[in-house]
Structures are given as structure tokens and as C-alpha cells.
Records
---
Amino acid sequence: MRTRVALFLATLLSALFVVLGVAAIPASAEGESIFGFLFQLDKHNQKVSYEGVSVTVKGPAGFSKTVTSDKDGRWTVPVPKPATYTVSIDVKTLPKGVNLTDEKKQSLKVPVLEGQDKPVLFPLGKSERKVQGDWSQAAQLAAEGLRFGLIIALAAVGLSLIFGTTGLTNFAHGELVTLGAIVTWWVSTGNLPFLPDFGGFQFFPAAIIALLVCAGFGWLNDAWLWRPLRRRGTGLIAAMIVSIGLSIFLRYFFLYLFTGNTRQFPDYQGQKGISLGPIDLAVRDYLSMAVAVVVLLATIVALLRTRIGKATRAVSDNPALASASGIDVDRVIRVVWVVGAMLAGLAGILLGLAQGITFQMGFQILLLIFAAVTLGGLGTAYGALVGSLVVGMFISVSTLWIPPELKNVGALGILIVILLVRPQGILGRAQRVG
Amino acid sequence: MDWTRIIVNALEAAVGLQTVVFALAAIGLNVHFGYTGLLNFGQSAFMAVAAYGLAVIVQTYGWPLWVGVLTGLAGAVVLALLLGIPTLRLRADYLAIVTIAAAEIIRLTVRSVTFQNVFGGSDGRQSFSSDFYAHNPYPVRYYHIGSFGFHEREMWVLTVGWVLIAVSCLIVFLLMRSPWGRVLKAIREDEDAVRSLGKNVYAYKMQSLIIGGVLGCLGGFIYALGQNSIQPDIFGTDTTFFAYTILILGGAARVGAPVVGAMIFWVILSLTDNILNEAIDAGYISHSVITTTQTGQIRFMLVGLLLMLLMIFRPQGIFGDRREIALDAR
């Protein structure tokens, strides 16, 4: 994540330098050239330039020229005519510990148009395939994994409670996550769809309004859809397919309202990192984790100690028996829906803080939530919690060995392996599930 | 509003490539869900394995088309075994979660930069069907009645597609009236009863998963050959759920239902897309409400709504029988 953000910033910055650089070239520099800057942003967003790195440009008719970068990391090669040139960087001349983020991109083919000064960027940084056994990096990844695991846990506990009390595998749970994030964005920017801009609130009131909206939506979900379906005696598979339909509908409704862009909350961006030993996270990350831990603990205490919590566990265990002993099962389910939707909405807000907001952010983590719930044992809230932390950590730490783009593949893979060896999950009771 | 164009587009959609592809996928799902009660949410994975098997063998390794087709078919069988072994002994929703996870694993793997040399990353693979079109019996021209018509390449791929649909339907029909098919339906109704009669339920479910997967993977071949280009994101979860909507619309556990379902489904989508676009262009709908780039989103919302409403009010679809549909997890 961090390297990707750095890379993104680097790309933006280099675009800026291109503009400045073009302006700085005197008018006498007619004709075409290829140029670039070799630099990297350190963890405090300071630019570090690399001097003395060799770059070779080869072109048609045997054109070949090698230059080295100056103290600003700049290199320039004037080329004779518009054509396609091959630009390669000599990685051996890079300082120790600096690599291309993609080792395959050592040489790039670039077309140069007439009169163009063509910028070429070699993204520098830590190689995506990271060195094994780097303990401080492992600690950093574990911290990020913990943050992600806690976010998944918030959503997974709700999903698990709904599954436990109603038997519904809710495929539309990811959309509850998205709802929390996009309502917070709408309220905090003031850009509500179809309504005039009202200027927006600060992040915290906006988040609270979003949680209330999520609670209301959870209530509506149960009152208008699932309770009538339960009354009709709709089967569990039918209900699951209904939730898939709802998920598709809501996801594209969000796309319609929110557009396909990735957006950021207006507040708390660009915070400086705070280092705790080898771990370096922004203040908002520490705060997100604290909020998630407090909310999760409160949920567990409520399940263990309060009347409604005990009633919820009773309904999960045996709805008929709970009903016979005087528990209002429909009321319990209603509360579970409201609380589950709020937890999911909170997960969405925290996820939005960590990685930006898109219309399908919830759907993208839905399978990871399922993996967490299944891993912990279907229908047990504590299992969902443990499963989430395992999934979050695994996804993050596994990037030490596997490319980051494949990290979710690993997590979904262990889901299948766990089902092979221990189908009841880590904390599930051993019982016949087939 | 140009109504002739709207209607011609709808008619072309009724027999077009998408209809053929999704009819084949839904025929496979019908064997899984309609007849056996297996909740396979990874039908897109079977299509992906077939399409990529073909494309990678032909384009990446330069082998002939028939090797690619055999690879795709073998891939579908292997995938069915891999999915079935851990999950077929478990409850229905486990199979659902594992199959959807496997479909995502396959999609993420083929679109990754790591395996770009083999699968082509997010750009996928292109230009691998020249062998297929080299056998095109249709001379080069535009075959049409009025403005409804197809070029010779479309004619060839659609002919092959519809022949495959006919053969698949025949296979399903013959299988399901055999004693073997009656065991499948009995498993859907009451697995324990079948087990108590001494049948190996696990083996029957596995055979059903393989046969349905292979039938579904034919859709992947037709898509790849028809488009001559595949991208990983075509095989996302939405594809599977489109196939489910088609199956439920037609009526699960009916031989011809997926075909009719696919035709109706794509006609509805074509009509709504075209009518909306025309209405926006003609100014009947304001651009502030919806733009032509957003009509695709309306299509998905419509599919979601259709799936919900069908499942709530008419789970048997058009031709099905309510008593024959696996609606409850056991």
C-alpha cells in the first residue's frame, strides 16, 4: 500500500517536474529529446534524487547515446528525429538498496513525436518482490494487516450475527460497508447527489450521520425485505439469491450516484507518520485501530452481559427454543440487523480512510469477509473476529513472499484449504455440516 | 426515436453471441442447480478456464486450435474435481462460498502482472481464432433480411454456438430421463434418503459438477472465438449471476428453459439499453438525470432487481415447477 501511494505521488510529482522542466528548457532547444528524473520519495515525502545513474537511448539508424543523471537526478538525451526509441536504465549504477519497482521495466520503448520533449519515468523504490527476512518490514506489514483485519472484523461480526440468527448468507453485506463510506463522503464534502451543495461537515459528525443512515438502512432491510420473506417461509437458498440480486442492484445504484472515481475524505489526508519502533503509520491509522478495538470489545461485552446480547446468542443457538422461552425472536433479529449494518458502515468508513472510497469497495472485501467468517466458524461472532484477524494479517504479511496483486488469492486459497481439513472453522464446534 | 433500429437490435440480441454464450453457461448451471441442487457460484471460472485454455495454447504457445479446445475441456474437468473434492461433502452454502472464491482466484491470477507473459495481464489475449475462421463455410458477404443480419464471421460462430446449444440440450434431456438423472433429482429432493438407498451421493454430485462445468465451459469457447479477444474481468462474479438470473427466469430443472431465458434476458437488456439511449439522445430524458455512459449501470440495476423479484415472487420462472427447485439449504 505504502509503496503504491509513494509511487502514485512520485508519478504526480514527476508530471509536475515535466511541466516545469519543459518551461525551463531554453527556446533554442529545438527538435526532439527524451528526458527524465531519477528520484524517490522517502517516508516523510522528501525527494531523494540519484546522481550518476547511466541511461542509454537507442534508436533507428544505429543511434545510441548514454548519459548519466545530474545532481537533481535529471538526464536528457537529444534525439535526431521523431521515431520510437528504446530507453534503458543501467540498474548496476543505481545506489545500493535502490531498485526499480518493476524489475522487468529496465528498458522501455517510447515513441517521440515531432518537436516533443518526451518524459520517461523509471519508478524507483523498493522492489515489489521484497527481500525475505526483513524484520522491520514484517512488523510494518503485520501492523497494516492488523488494521485491515480489524476493519474486516467489524463487517464480519455483523455478517456472522445475521447468519447465526436468520441463517441468511448475506451477499449484500459488502454494500452496507460501501454505504457507510460514501454517505460519510457525501456529508463531509457537502456533495449530496441531486441536492444543492451545503458546504459539508467535519469528518466526525459526518461519520456519525453515516452510521445513523446505515442503522436506518439495516432496519429497512429487515423491515421491508427479510422479515416479510421469513414470514412467507422463503428458503435459505432463495434468500441468498435474493441478497445477490440486492447486492448487484445496490452496487450499480452506488455507481450511478457516486460515479466510478476513487475519492478521499477531505479531512485527515497527508498526515505525517508516527513511528513506534519499526512501525510507521499515520495518526488516523492508530485511531482507526483504537476505534475498531473499542467497538469490537463493546460488541462482545454486549453479547456476553446484556439481556439482548444473551437473547441474540439464544436465538443463534436454537430459534424455536428461544421463542418458546419467551424471547421475541423478530425483535432480536431486528436489533441484529441494525447493529450489523452499523458495524459494517463503520468498517466502510475506516476502510475509506485507509484506501479511498469507491462504489465497489465493500464488494471487493466481501469474499475476504466470507473467508474470515468461514475460517472462524460459520455463525459464531468470536470466530468471525479471530478469522478476520488471521485473514488480515495473512494478506498483509504474505506480501513478503508473494506479489501484492496476488495477496487476496492467497487468502481465498487458505479458505479452501481450511474447509478441506477443518470444515467447522477454527472456533466452530465439531459437528456434522454435510 | 428510431424504433426499427431498436427492434432490429433486440432481434439480433435474441440470437446473438451473448445469448449463445449465456445459454450454454446456464445449461451447465441447470445441471448443477436445477437438477442436482448444487449451488455453484463459480460458473464464470469454468468459462474462464475454457477461454484462457484456448487462447493461451493458441496465442502464447502457438499450438493448433484443437489442442487449445482439448486443454480448455480438460481444464474444466480438473477445476470441477478441485472444487468438488473439498466441498461436496459439506452443506450447500459452503460450496457457494468456495466456488465464488475459486472464480475470483482464477480471475485475479490471470490478470496479474506476475503471469503477464502467459495470460496477458488485464489486457488478456487477442487474435487466436484465425484457425476457427479458416474453416468458415460461409462465403464473405452480409447475410440479412432487411436490416436484420450478420456478417459471415458472426454467421459461422453463431451456427457453431446454436449447434452446441442443441447438442447440449439433447445431452441434458437424455441424461435426465435416464436412471442416473433420476438419482440426481432425488439428491436434490432428499440427499439422506438417496444415501440410505445405498447410492454414493458424493460420486453423483461430482459427476454432475463435472458435466455441468464442461457444458458451461462451451460458453467460454464461443465467447473467445466470437470476440477473438478475452479479458480477465469478463469472467467476474457478475457473469455467474447473469447466468443464474437467466436460469431462474427460464425455469430451473427444465431442459430448454436456459435457452429461452437467455433469449428473453438479452432482448430485455437490448431493449432497455437502446430505448434509454435513444430517449437521451432525443432529449426526452435530461442529461442531468442520466447520460448515455450511465445506461450500462441501469442494465446492471435492472438485472439485480429482476433476480430479486423472480426469486421472491416466481422462483420457478416461466416454465419451471415450484416443487422442483432447491430453495432450502439442507
---
Amino acid sequence: MTRAPVVFVVDDDPSVRSSLKFLLSSVGLQVESFDSADALLQRKPPDAPSCLVLDVRLRGLSGLDFQRELAARNRQMPIIFITGHGDIPMSVRAMKAGAVEFLTKPFRDQDLLDAVRIALERDRCRREEEKEVADLQERFDSLTPREQEVISLAVSGLLNKQIAGQLGTAENTVKVHRSRAMEKMNAQSFADLVRMIEKLKGSAKKAS
Amino acid sequence: MPFLWLLVFTKMNSETHGAGRSTEPVDLRDLIETIPALVLCALADGSAEFANRAWHEYTGCSSPELTGWGWHAAIHPDDLPKLIQEWTVATAAGKPFETEARVRRADGEYQWFAIRKALSVSRDQIGKPSLRTLIACEDIQERKQAEDRLQQSEQRWQTAFENSAIGIIIRDRADRFLAANRAFRTMLRYTELELYQLRSIDVTYEEDRELNLELIRELWEGKRQHFEIEKRYRRKDGTLVWVRNNVALVPGTAGVAPFLFTVVEDITERKKEESEAEELRASLHATQLQLAQVSRLTTMGELTASIAHEVNQPLTAVTNNANACLRLLARRNLDPEVLRRALEEIVADGTRASSVIARIRGFIKKAPAEKSDLDINEVIQEVLALARRELSENRVLLEPQLTEALPPVLADRVQLQQVLLNLIMNGIEAMTALTSRPRLLWVQSRIDESGDVLIAVRDSGPGLGSESDRVFTPFFTTKANGMGMGLPISRSLIEGHGGRLWATPNSPHGAVFSFTLPTAAGSPP
């Protein structure tokens, strides 16, 4: 069961900050606002989809610097930039670094709300994906080393007989390892297992 | 060339020369008489026994006038003492006699003669042998004149050399001073004697020596006949003087070794002017930068960004709050307390936005006003210098009509430059599309009827037509990328100086922008 999404607002202007909080809460969103990037970094990451509405011009760390800082800390959170004087190069940089939207103040409220919706959806997907990979990893970790070996070879396309030959064991033993692993991995079919392993590999590649 | 032969008869005793030496006594006098040259026969004491015909003819004197000591009267009084002195000394010592003296001609003119003992002859007179000495005299008038001319010329040159306003030096192959005139000595503050102890390179500024020596070497090697160099000398007191030297190698003659002739011009003043001009250019450049900065502010380039940010913050808050209320209202979920708080914030942010605007206006008004007494024509010239490139690039002909000797105005130079530049640039821009008639820009300064200084900038462009009232309205512009702030700001700057700025049509074409400024004497302190 996923918890209610959270929208973080970072703007050093108290009026803007509180008006943003009011606007976002008026459509039922849960909002937390901060006057600086550092203040947000003090907060524990929520166990819920979240996004960040971030002013580009901040005292101390600028919005764009903060975007880099978050990426460096591997705190993935979609960002919607708002600015009082946006220029094109700045917005291009922000979008390239993964921003969801770049809004120039004063913006249409619907534009902001749409951007927030997209951002939360994106974060929800990301979180689900992450959760799935984590589950898979957990299941994969519960396999014995021999079982992991067997399914890795099976997924790479070897027949049981070939696997047995390579591991220096009987074909029947391989069959047993394989079905146990399928069971532990909660795979409905061999194709399902292949997809799971590919996903694990993919996320491992992404992480490295 | 006629010669004067002076024949001197000296009585000698017979023991010295012997009796056997007798010759034809009668013929000698006849012979002397017929010699075309001037001949005088004198006794041992120098008195004349007789003068020959040529003497009489040359001097125009009679025989009695010339005999005895009479002939002395024909010698120039200034030369006579010397002649007598030398005669006496030479006779006493038995040495050859030779002197130069002027002898008066019949017309009263004196001519130079060399008078010398030529030879001695013996003569038998009244049976007694006697010895005569023959002295030769030469007409040297021409040589004497040539010598005089040479001496005068030498003196003239010496005087010219010494008194020349420009420094002149003569150096030998070892770079020693052979001569240095007063101008040069004064320039370097050395005495003549001190200079003769030095080489030219010794008084040359260290940094300039190498090039100088190289050029001098090329002179002596015949690679060049002369050269010019701008260099510095170090004076005796250590200070530096900038000079331009023109150095020539004068080839040697039989008696004179080759030498370097150098004309030394003190260019310290010119160098100073050059560096001052450089400074002036630099300061003009600085002014230009300053102006560019100011006009950038005027065109609101950077100002707009900061205004936008300052104003957008409260506007964003207002919009957000109002939108949130609308959304809650639509869902019939708007708590009056929430609405009240939102409205309070909206009011606060609205106030804040207007205070930002007020602050910016105050900033523009307060913008650095450093008033001083200014010559308005000078300010106009500065701005025209800045606009010169724009004028020529747009092929606009400038017609300055500046009234001289205007009273000073008490004003901020940068602000005036800004206003003038704005009006001039407007004038230029108004004429860019003009092809049917010349693009003319008049800039006029004068005293107006009320005694204020009036400056008018007129163009031959299309004019303002019906827009003439609106051009001073903020954000009104006819330019594609104009802000419409130049004229309103210019007007407020001029009003800040107690003056007025207005526009009128120019006749037959174009527009006139005029502004007045009270004179420094008439404006409040």
C-alpha cells in the first residue's frame, strides 16, 4: 500500500512559499515547504512518491546546483523549476539534467498542477520499479550459490545437459536446482524467469 | 697681381763687403723708377730716400710728400705701429723683415700689401762701396679679403652653432664630444669641460643605448649616411630628457678626421603631450564605458531583469493564492478563515509589488547626480565624439551650431551626456530610412530668451507627426526594439536639473528636441 505523495517546495520568498503550499494543498496534495535547499536535505527521504518545486534563484545553493547535489546523493526526485527571470540556456540546462518542467513566474496554476501530477506519476513509477528490482534481488539472494549458478547458465540459453556438463554434475540434479530456483523466484514460467534476471542485470548495470 | 718692391739702401762700411764689388750705380735708380710695382728706397732708419713712379701713381702723392718719413702717412694708422715695431726688431736682430699693412690708394681706399725684405744689393756711391737690401712687397688685398671672409664665416658659424636654439654636437669615432653647443649643454646641464670628459653613450639612457650604438656602428661602417632616433639622455642631475637626434656622418678631409654631426631636438614636451593625449584617450574611453553602462541601464536591459524578479515574486504569490481560493470555492470547500488569510496575503503582496516599483523609481531619480559647473559645449563635443562612429556609419552629416563662451551650467556631466546621447541617437535612428534627402543633424547651443542655456538637436527625418505628444510617455516607442524609456528618463533628468525638455516639428522636415538648463549663476545651489 503506497502512502500519500508529498510535494516539496523550496523557495526563499516566504509569500511565494506559502502561496505555493496553499495552492497545492487546495487540490488535496500533501505539501512540505522549505526556505533553503539545505533545509530540505535535512529531511529524511519520504517513503512515498514525491517531487520538488524549486526556485532557481536561491540564497546559498542555487536551484541548478541543488539539482546536481541531489543527483550526486542519488536522491531521485523529479524537479519542477520556477523562476522569476528564466532564460533559455538556463532552462535547457535544467531540462537536460532531468527537470520535469521549467515555469516562469507568474505561471498559470494549471501548468504547475499538471507538472506536479506528471512529476508524482513519474516518481511513483520509478519507486515501483525500484521496489520490484529490490524484491527480485531479495529473492535472488535467497537462492543457494549452486541454484544461482544453474539459472544464470539456463537464462544464457544452455540446455540442462549442457549445464550439467559444465558444472560436472548430473542432469537430474540440474533439473532439481532449476525448479527450486523457479519456485523461490516466484517465476510462473521460464520466460518469466528470464525477464526477472534481465531486469536484475539491467538495474545492476544502471547502478554501476 | 701687382707687387710692391721696397728697396732699402743701407750704408755699410767697405771692410765688410770689399771695394771690388762696385757695379753700375746710375742705372739702378733708373731701373727702379721703371719697375711697374711700388718701390721705395729707404735708409737704414726706415726713412725714404725716394719712392718710384709707381708709388706716386698709386698713392697720388708728390715726391716731397713721400720722401723722409712722409711715406708713413700712406700706411693705415692702425698698421703703422706694428710695421715700425717689426722693422726695428728685424733690423736690430739682422733677421728677415716681413709684415702686412694697408697702403692708401689715391682715391683714399686702403689695400693690403705684404711688405718684406727681398734682397740686398751693393752699390758704389761716391766711390765708396755700400750695401743695399731689397725688400719685396706683395699686393695681398684679395687674399686678405678671402681670409676675412673665411674668418667672418667661421665666426658666423661659431655664433650660430653656439647660439642655436637646437642642440648640436660633434663627436669623433670614439664617441667623444668634440663640440657641444650651449643648447645641448643646457639640455643636459653639463658644462663644456665635463662633456669633453664623456662619451655620448655615457649620457644616453641605459635602455636606449643598444639601439643607438647599433645605428652609430652602421654609420661608421658606411651602411647608412644618417639616421634619426628618439631617445632619452640622462642629465647630470639624473633626470631624463626625451630627444630626437638627427645624426649624420661627415666624411673627413685632408686636415680633418671624419666626425658625427648631430642635431638634438628636445621633445620632452611633445612626449608629454603625447602621453597626455594617450591619457585623454584613455579617459575618454572610460567615459564611453561609463556612458555605455548608464545607457544600458536606461534601455532597461539589466534593470528589467531585476524589476521582473522583484515584481514577479509578489505577483506569483497573489496569483497562487487567488487560484487556490477559486479552486476551493469551486469545490465549495472554502473555509472563510482560509479565505481571509489568503486575501490578507494577497493584499500584502499587492502592497509589496507597488513598493518595489516605488523603490525602483526612487533609485532612478536618485541616480548619481554629481553636479558641477560645466561648459555645455564641452559636454556636447564629448558626446559628439562618442557618436562619431554612429554618425558616419549612418551617413549622417553633422552641423554643429555651438555658441561660444556660454555661461557654465550646474549639472551632472554623466546625466547630460546621457540625455544628449539619447537625443542624438534618436535623431540618427529617425533618419536611417531616409533616402530622398540628406540626413542632417544639427546640434545647437545658445542662450534663450529667459537667459537659460538652450540645447537643440534637430534632424531631417520624417518628424513626429501626431505622435509628438506621446513620445515622452513611458513605454511608448516607434522602434522595433526600443523600450520607450529614453525620452521619459531624459525628461526627468533634465527636470531634475531645473530645466525643460520638449519636442517640436523641424521645418521643413524632421523633429527638434530642445532642452534648457539654468546657468550656474542662476540655478539654486
